[in-house]
Design brief:
With 442 residues, the chain is mainly alpha-helical. The protein has a domain of 309 residues. Helix content is 68%, strand content 2%. The protein has 23 helices and four strands. A two-stranded parallel sheet has the order 1-2. Strands 3-4 form a two-stranded antiparallel ribbon. α3 packs parallel to α10, α9 runs antiparallel to α10 and α18 packs across α23. The longest helix is centred in the middle third of the chain and has 26 residues. The relative contact order is 0.15.
Length: 442
């Protein structure tokens, strides 16, 4: 409760302080007023009380989840639980998106002029695009990349280029891909928690992951896809450490491929290593864990090296992105506000039930005993802390920090079982409230 009170205070302050007109940051405006204000705070969106086609399905899914999901999570066979968690997460994300309408809420989200799909038609020669990628990151050059392409390594753009070349161009196929991948991350976390903690806790976490408020920004945002790639990379690493012989090595190499690809999707996902570290620390056989982690790391580096051979060096891209960031909206987002309001945004994304779980996860005794879920939550907090002090994450963190926030939504599994249903209801109601009162940009 202390954690929830502190979190609620932070959120209230983040919404109220901009309305005091102190000249540092702009409060959320009504939809239609100066659409696209970059410094609007603390959620990127506009006030707009509305309902849509997804309203009734979202309420129904949320009510079903609160009433029956915890019991079903205890009873279902393990494989059925994973499928149910993934399917529920997808349905929850789509229903929340459709509150904003079919086109605005789903089909057109990835077709925005600042998004990857806008750049796809210009990619006629992939090797040439890679060789010129770093040069085109800074703004005001005539042929600079659009905002989201410039802000990420080329893996993100290539994903949608390849999808287009398969004959699946446009916003709808891209949206389906992102939802399908993003919602699968819930199952990846359930697998990881079972592997590093125990099955009972993993089953308790499943409803919270399936109905996490983060789903608002998973459908449809490419960051949901990034989140899933990183989550499955960590899940495979956890499984590789617990498997002996060839299967363990294959899983470790597969983990490295995914984590290397994650780094080529988003510069910030190098911080996923802080979430992978607890997987190694909780292993019973530390020597095996280190060998498997070393193989995963080497494979991830190899993925980065392949891009270097084709003309894109990750480090050069990172420095160019810093230049692009400070050429643009960074100046409209004062650090004296966003250094702490970032955290308020992420609280909105994970829900107060997750905040309560984080308070429980920081139990000193459990951390000394290297309890898996506790360490995963601490790792995600560490990743967010580093991202925050880097000054490269100011605003929009409810979307940008999805790969780290995801793990926090499993934290309520550590709460007393008798209270978990109530905290699940708090998260569901919070997600419905945000999506119906704020017209989010994502």
């Amino acid at each position: 409760m202390a954690a929830v009170v502190a979190g609620a205070t932070l959120v209230v302050a983040a919404f109220v302080i901009p309305t005091l007109h102190l000249g540092t940051v702009t409060p959320l405006r009504q939809r239609g007023e100066r659409a696209g204000v970059a410094d609007a705070a603390p959620i990127f969106g506009w006030w707009d009380a509305h309902i849509g086609w997804g309203t009734m399905p979202a309420i129904a899914i949320g009510a079903f989840g609160v009433a029956w999901a915890p019991a079903q999570a205890r009873r279902l066979p393990w494989r059925h639980l994973l499928v149910a968690t993934w399917a529920t997460s997808a349905a929850w994300a789509v229903s929340l998106a459709l509150i904003d309408g079919w086109r605005r809420g789903f089909v057109d989200r990835l077709a925005d002029p600042n998004e990857y799909l806008y750049q796809v038609p210009s990619i006629t020669d992939i090797p040439a695009a890679l060789r010129s990628f770093v040069r085109r990151i800074p703004d005001f050059q005539g042929d600079s990349w659009v905002t989201h392409v410039a802000g990420h390594p080329p893996g993100a753009l290539l994903t949608f280029v390849w999808l287009d070349r398969l004959g699946l161009g446009g916003g709808l196929p891209a949206g389906i891909l992102v939802v399908f991948a993003g919602s699968s991350a819930a199952a990846a976390v359930v697998i990881t928690v079972r592997t590093v903690h125990d099955e009972v806790t993993a089953r308790r976490a499943a409803p919270f992951l399936a109905l996490a408020p983060t789903a608002i920004w998973v459908a449809v945002s490419a960051d949901g896809y990034f989140m899933a790639i990183a989550a499955w990379g960590i899940a495979l690493l956890a499984l590789s450490i617990r498997r002996s012989g060839r299967p363990g090595w294959v899983l470790a190499a597969s983990s490295g491929l995914l984590l290397g690809w994650a780094v080529m999707l988003s510069y910030g996902l190098v911080l996923a290593s802080l979430i992978a570290l607890p997987v190694v620390l909780t292993a019973a056989n530390r020597a095996t864990a280190l060998r498997r982690a070393a193989l995963a790391a080497a494979t991830a580096v190899a993925v980065v090296g392949i891009f270097d051979l084709h003309g894109f060096w990750w480090v050069d891209g990172y420095h160019a992105v810093q230049q692009r960031y400070w050429q643009g909206i960074a100046h409209d987002r004062p650090i004296q506000y966003w250094s702490w309001a970032n955290l308020a945004s992420i609280i909105c994304a994970i829900g107060f039930g997750s905040v309560a779980g984080i308070g429980q996860a920081l139990d000193a005794s459990a951390l000394r005993r290297r309890r898996g879920l506790n360490l995963l939550v601490v790792g995600s907090l560490a990743a967010i802390a580093v991202a925050d002090v880097s000054l490269l994450s100011k605003a929009e963190t409810e979307r940008i920090w999805l790969p780290f926030a995801l793990w926090m939504t499993a934290a309520p599994a550590l709460l007393p079982p008798r209270s978990q249903r109530w905290w699940l209801a708090v998260n569901v109601i919070g997600a419905l409230l945000i999506n119906h009162v704020i017209f989010t940009n994502w």
